[in-house]
Structure formats: structure tokens, C-alpha cells
Design a protein that fits this description.
Number of strands: 10
Order of helices and strands: EEEHEEEHHHEHEHEEHH
Strand order of the largest sheet: 6-7-8-3-9-10
Structural class: alpha/beta
Oligomer: single chain
Radius of gyration: 19 Å
Bound molecules: adenosine-5'-diphosphate, magnesium ion
Length: 274
């Protein structure tokens, strides 16, 4: 049985326009997608195609207008500790230290107070932040804050990690090193990861499957399986990124996306002239 199933998921928003009353706006239109346990699936699509909407639905932060999302065979109706979410902007508590922020994730799960600090330290170590436990978010770099956010969502041990462009605000080098760390964490923990990005290289580097979305209303245009032989034992980092196979996947996904980005720009132009 698949871990996560999207069945004909549609999401419409009602928007108010001055003088024109309310309008229905379709953000997602009939999303079908299956994700296996332990899979790393990346969703790419042009800006505004409904990627965040899709992740919010899976996180239980909002409900589909029609269709349904199953997690372990059960419909998703609310947020839950079985899903950890990491957003693009570090949603950390500014008044808490790195350790305190990771502990925060454990408070909801009923881990006894004394064990929380130990557990939080372990997860800060996992993301390479040993020695920074007592720093507050403003004393950390962007990359470090995002590591804290990842440690926080891993600490309460959710089966599924949902990530919405978590590295988009970081510089290229930090982004690449966090991609490597995330891959390592995924390999060690066996979690199911759903990762949203608009970056093609990031998608090819991280995903076992890359779901390419159409421009809005968002649908799944194609799911591209990305196989670099046995990736765990195979190439890493720059070697993988500069391999001919990598270039082939990048081109395949670029081609799929290119038409969609062009269509999205056309839509915007038309709307601007209405
Ligand atoms: N709460 C909302 N109310 C109205 N429209 C929304 C809402 N959330 C998102 N949208 C619209 O739905 C579309 C998809 O948004 P989003 O999922 O954020 O796209 P992406 O993450 O792919 O950039 C956008 O056009 C956005 O303006
Ligand atoms: Mg988004």
C-alpha cells in the first residue's frame, strides 16, 4: 500500500474582486499522485502553480475542495505529529535558543522534560549544529536556522517530512551542503520525504521521483523516475552534478517545465490586459 495517495484532489479559493463580487479560483485541478513509504519525491512547478497549496493539504493545514488525500490509507483531515513540516522561511521561535526550538517540537509529543534536552541535542548533532545549542535564531546564519528547523521537525520522529522550498532563500553553497545533509538524513532514517522546489537541479539531485506540475491550475504533468544506478554507493556532490546522466535528467525536466513557464507567463499577460 502506498504511504500517501492523492485522489483527484482539487482546491479552489474564493477571491473577492472590487465591483465584480466573488470569483472562484482553481489552484489545483485533479491531482493524482502516489508516494511509497520511504520514498523521496520532489515536486517542481512554475511559481503560482499550487505547490504550497498541495503541501498545505498534505500537512492538513487546509482541506481539499474535492477528492481526498490518504496517509496510510486514512484520509488526512488535520495536522498531525506523523508529518513534520519545514517551510521556506525558518519558522523558529525568536525568543528560544536552537536547543529550545528543537525541544519545542517535543513538548507536544509528551517526551518527559529531562529527555527532551538530550533528544534535542542528538538532533542538533545530526544536522551539524553541535556547539550552537545556546544561540538564538538571530545569532545564527540562514543555513543554520534552516538546520534548526529540520532538526525540530525530525526530533519528534514523524514518518513523513514535508518541505516547502526549504533551501530557496539560501546561497548556492549552503544550499548544496544542506541538500547533501538532507540526503544523508533520509538514507539513515528511511523517512518519506515530499520536497517542493522550483529548482530543476535541486529536484534532480534530491528526488527519486520528480513530479512536474503544470502551470495553474496545477496538475501533475509527469512523474519522472530519477535513477543514478545505486545512488547511495554511487556518485555524490559535484561529481554527480556534473555527470552526463545528471545533465540528461536536468534537460528532460527543463523541457517539461519550459512549456509550463511559458504558458504561465502568457496567462499573466492576458490577465494584466483584462
Ligand atoms: N488562501 C488563498 N486564497 C486565495 N488564493 C490563494 C490562496 N492560497 C494560494 N492562492 C493562490 O493559489 C495559487 C497557487 O498558490 P501556491 O500554492 O502558493 O503556489 P506555489 O507555491 O506553486 O507558488 C496562486 O495563484 C495563489 O495566489
Ligand atoms: Mg510556494
Amino acid at each position: 500500500m502506498a504511504k500517501i495517495v492523492f485522489e483527484a484532489v482539487t482546491k479552489t479559493f474564493r477571491t473577492k474582486h472590487k465591483g465584480r463580487g466573488t470569483q472562484e479560483f482553481t489552484a489545483l485541478d485533479g491531482i493524482d499522485l502516489e508516494i511509497g513509504a520511504g520514498e523521496f519525491v520532489v515536486v517542481v512547478g512554475p511559481s503560482g502553480c499550487g505547490k504550497s497549496t498541495l503541501l498545505d493539504l498534505l500537512g492538513g493545514l487546509s482541506r481539499p475542495t474535492s477528492g481526498r488525500i490518504l496517509l496510510d490509507g486514512e484520509p488526512v483531515t488535520s495536522p498531525g505529529l506523523d508529518r513534520g513540516i519545514v517551510f521556506q522561511q525558518y519558522a523558529l521561535l525568536p525568543w528560544r535558543t536552537a536547543l529550545g526550538n528543537v525541544e519545542f517540537g517535543l513538548e507536544a509529543t509528551g517526551v518527559p522534560r529531562r529527555q527532551r534536552a538530550t533528544r534535542a541535542r542528538e538532533f542538533l548533532e545530526l544536522v551539524g549544529l553541535t556547539g550552537f545549542e545556546d544561540r538564538h535564531p538571530h545569532e545564527l546564519s540562514g543555513g543554520m536556522r534552516q538546520r534548526v528547523a529540520i532538526a525540530r521537525s525530525l526530533a519528534y520522529d514523524p514518518d513523513v517530512l514535508l518541505m516547502d522550498e526549504p533551501f530557496a532563500a539560501l546561497d548556492a553553497q549552503t544550499r548544496e551542503s544542506l541538500q547533501d545533509e538532507l540526503r544523508g538524513i533520509w538514507q539513515r532514517t528511511g523517512k518519506t520525504v515530499v520536497f517542493i522546489t522550483h529548482g530543476i537541479e535541486e529536484a534532480v539531485y534530491l528526488g527519486q521521483k520528480v513530479a512536474v506540475m503544470t502551470s495553474r491550475p496545477g496538475r501533475v504533468k509527469e512523474v519522472v523516475p530519477v535513477t543514478f544506478g545505486d545512488r547511495g554507493a554511487g556518485l555524490q556532490g559535484e561529481e554527480l552534478r556534473s555527470s552526463p546522466e545528471f545533465a540528461r535528467y536536468r534537460h528532460e525536466i527543463w523541457t517539461l517545465l519550459h512549456d509550463e513557464v511559458a504558458r504561465a507567463q502568457q496567462l499573466e499577460k492576458e490577465e494584466a490586459t483584462v
